[in-house]
Fold each of these.
Amino acid sequence: MIERPITDWLPLTKKEVEKRGWDEVDVVLVSGDAYVDHPAFGTAVIGRIMESEGFKVAVVAQPNWKDDLRDFKKFGRPKYFFGVTAGCMDSMVNHYTANKRLRSNDSYTPGGEAGFRPDYATTVYSNILKELYPDVPVLIGGIEASLRRVTHYDYWKDQLMPTILADSKADLLVYGMGEQPLRELLKLVREGVPLNTIRNVNQIAYLQDSEAELPSDKGWETVELASHEVCLQDKIKYAANFKIVEVESNKWQANRIIQKVGNQTLVINPPFKIMDEKEIDASFDLPYTRLPHPKYKTRGTIPAYEMIKFSINMHRGCFGGCSFCTISAHQGKFIASRSEKSIMKEVEEVTKHPEFKGYISDLGGPSANMYRMKGKDEAICARCTSPSCIHPVICSNLDTSHKPITELYKKVDAHPKVKKAFVGSGIRYDLLVDDFNKNNKDNNHDEYMEQLITRHVSGRLKVAPEHTSDDTLRVMRKPSFKYFKLFKQKYDKISDKHNLNQPLIPYFISSHPGCEEADMANLAAETKDLGFRLEQVQDFTPTPMTVAEVIYYSGVHPYTLKPVFTAKTKEEKLDQNRYFFWYKPEFRSLIRSRLNKLKRPDLADRLLSNPKKQETRVEKKMGKKR
């Protein structure tokens, strides 16, 4: 393997800066993740965009925040500003389980080691920089900053927190996917406009004195939220705020949002319209090495990189709008798809990787089969305020054709250096069920399923029904479980036709708002009847900027303001989660006892009587009507 010059990466050390012949740095990026120069890692994307705009960029990856802070000082004062991100995950989700236990590993650190970033990393890093360089502007972004941009409930502190701009003392926040606002900000900075004075760029947020007038040059309409202080006193007002934020986040022509925080006003400018094909291609086509920085060689592999190093991300965004998910809140509900040319160019790059053996691990996206899907009449989309295009029903204006993605799969398959290209991301199975999706005019869904199942499943296919209770699924913004059963029948039929043994792996969540203990017992019984022993399961974690988080904290649904039951205590959550593992001997007596207390001995008998060893896959005979 030929060693690449260190200057192929953005510099991580002063020595690397000097090798480039620079005597100063324009922007210093501080990240909670190790530096992997790959388009799946936000710091690399932001750094490469800045580089493409002519800026000299250096990276401080996972700085030590406990010592003399030399990591924060190693590049000195940047010419323009510091950029700060917690990394690819909210640092609290990264650190703690749903039961608030500290995790023992970190997928974004060499060797998977934990402890290389602080809790609330964005705030910690930004405060340090403001102490060291009080006159240098700080720009924060990434998922942690984006989803904490307004008053939000923090599950780990069990309290409402103000906009992250207040605690971090940062000058400016970019929310969502940052390419479009970043290019605008860089243009202004290059023209001599100080970053901390910029106010008229879409998709940024900032704090200003409450007495100051709002900028009026863009002609934006303004919507005011209940203040942070009001939210602290009134959970219903907090819940009502969320609906406004979500609706405005999903509009093409959105309003500006303001919220009083103490003696300041938070200002959130409207988002950009979703990136077009040329813009998203430009982001993915930057000159990434697609490799971790060489400094990590002796520290072990970076698990998150190992997972995606042979994968291709084909699009961004998700129009599912699931209540527990942050994807649409951060990436948007409209799909931004790359061109075939850009994707095939990346396929070629992947095949050149020194460790590539002919297998692409994922042709995917947030929901793998949403590639190129959009409104048939975009004028209707421009007026739409719905948080989901497929709940409670699939919008008649949504083009759900799977033809473009099917053809793309075939082109990747035909690449001479690709033996197999798998779909590792989860698919939205409800888009493929004709009883639910009435938009399948030319039956291309069946062609897609045939192509997917026969050519692109690596042993197992991930799908996410999430629950079996219709009441819980309505709160989740997910379709009825009956559609999963129909999908499974279709899947089994194609698998039988081709004599394939590729089990479906369904994902489920316990303790989600709207889910009672009896619903979990029913879930266990229904999935047992289908032949599953569940393994891809999780307990609900309330994360900022989700419907489910608002319900968990306030007790009401933000759209109806009506009460919704939620399991909140550790004991309640454990009682629900235990039903996933009904087949484990140590849980059987506990489950029977709980169901007897619920006066549901019928469920206890259904779930626990005549235990047999069952396969983790669905037996073929299960595909027949019972």
Amino acid sequence: MADAPAAPAPPAPDADAADPVIAAARAWLGQDPDPETQAELRLLVSAAVDGDAAALADLHSRFDERLAFGTAGLRGAIAAGSNRMNRVLVSQAAAGLAAFLVARAPAGSVPSVVVGFDGRKNSSVFATDTAALMAGAGVRAILLPRLLPTPVLAFAVRHLGASAGVMVTASHNPPNDNGYKVYLGGENEGSQIVSPDDAAIAAEILRVAAERLVPELPRAAYETAPESVVQAYIEATAGVALPPRVQVNTVYTALHGVGWDTTRRTLEAAGFDLPTLVDAQIAPDAAFPTVAFPNPEEPGAMDLSYATAREAGAELIIANDPDADRLAVAIPDAGSPDGYRRLSGNEVGAILGWRAAEIAANSPDGPTGTLACSIVSSPAMASVASAYGLDFVETLTGFKWVSRAPGLIFGYEEALGYLVNPAVVRDKDGISAALAFLSLASELKADGLTIAEHLDRFSERFGHFASGQISVRVTDLAEIDRVMARLRANPPERVGSIRVDSIDDLSQGVGGLPPSDVLRIRLADGSRVMVRPSGTEPKLKVYLDTRAAIGTVPERKAAAAATLDDLDRGMRVLIA
């Protein structure tokens, strides 16, 4: 008698059913056009199916959420998944932005977009994907001719009369990050997007992601902008400076970014001698090999600049961040171990604002216009505006707000961002700001003065303003919410030894500002403290500002520093 047939083997466990994130990852693989992120994701999925808990957790980190599109566009680490920067996410963003532009274009007209990119990993790939997909969606797409600074893209939106602009950059983020900044033309005048446009674009992106696979999105030929666009930016920016009366011995670093070529051509057009270069950092390099973090505010980022400046006997150091929309400045300082001191963003903003006020005061029409800064920047700008009879506007943090101040002649924020040429660029611009600062240094040198002496002149005329900052990095974002809630529920009566005069909760909208998760603490001695969550990092940030206007300049500096120390100690206790 024949043996009975063997029973069928039980089916293998369905890993997709066990954890839906595996199905989500496999679906993502089906539309990912990037071989690198495909391979990375396949390995993760295979490991997760085999029971690797770490791989499964990694998949959840990548797919449980989606990288949110907001007023800062998109920014994140380059990797596979909906919560990372990659070609799938960028393609969906491009198609969503295109739908937004087409829906809002006047009847019978074709909207347009200009796309720029810097030297970061995948920047050119993301930019060409964007241009091709925009063109496929019925938008006239113009790609800048090569990797260029963010300010050139912001300029091109207005110069070309485009409906929108996209800049692929993560500015000074870590090397493996990239991002996607969106500007709008027309009545927005080339400024970055703000609410409600950000939400409308985000809704279109989500609709595309839900309804279409990336390979199904149509592509078409796009235009490449001529070099004349870059030359037009250079000529317009060179006009920021007066012809130099004397030259200033300067060192320049691009921090491995894209700033140098455009900066060089702008300096030449304005008549300035070229600076001594930090050779190891001058060429674009997406690995940023000489810095731990490509941000001139970070410790160690400017060490090579200081070394080069010591060798050259430089009077000034100018640094751009990797996409050249920010400017850092350092001056000789015998009391520093490096021989140089990097000026704070508030110091640079104060004297550039003073320069703008002087120019306005000497115009044929008399002093008109607006000085502006973000709410977390020094109150010094308000004092300058008052002294010159100019308008002053405080905005929420970010140049999307600063650039929209009516009648703007100069705007800045303390995080090394300056807008010195609002008729040309409606965004922070580290190249025009560098030229304006170099022009100021040249004028001062011709009159026998240094930047350090000019800062003292500022303190003598307007009072000495001192600023400080506390940044608390957290692993649990809920901790930031708990601190903000505690401060709201139990408002402090003192910060350190100084009595609290009033507290503004900006979450309700104050003084015409849109609602924002910020507390503004005003103290009885005129000092001010701002508390807010960071918009880009898992940090709680506290900004401290005080002013001393009595006594000599050294006495004012000492008094302001003592108050700042008191505020620092007090706030660290309150947010502990």
